[in-house]
Design a protein that fits this description.
By secondary structure, this protein is an all-alpha fold. It contains three helices and no strands. The chain has one domain.
């Protein structure tokens, strides 16, 4: 995977996860326990990991090689 494709994938993953977290914060869907659990235990960590991966992209790509 090229560095540009890797970064683009990470960026769109981060944007999509942020949209879900924003939906959780600003919509009435936060009252749904299933949506809350998915957001808190799957989407929020995914957003953090994608941000961390974008920050340390060079080290990750070197590690994968």
């Amino acid at each position: 995977m090229s560095p540009m494709t890797f970064r683009r994938t990470l960026r769109w993953t981060h944007i999509a996860a942020s949209a879900v977290v924003g939906t959780y914060l600003y919509s009435p869907f936060s009252d749904d326990p299933v949506f809350a659990a998915i957001t808190l235990y799957a989407v929020f960590p995914l957003m953090g990991l994608s941000g961390l991966a974008m920050w340390q992209q060079n080290r990750l790509l070197q590690w994968f090689r």
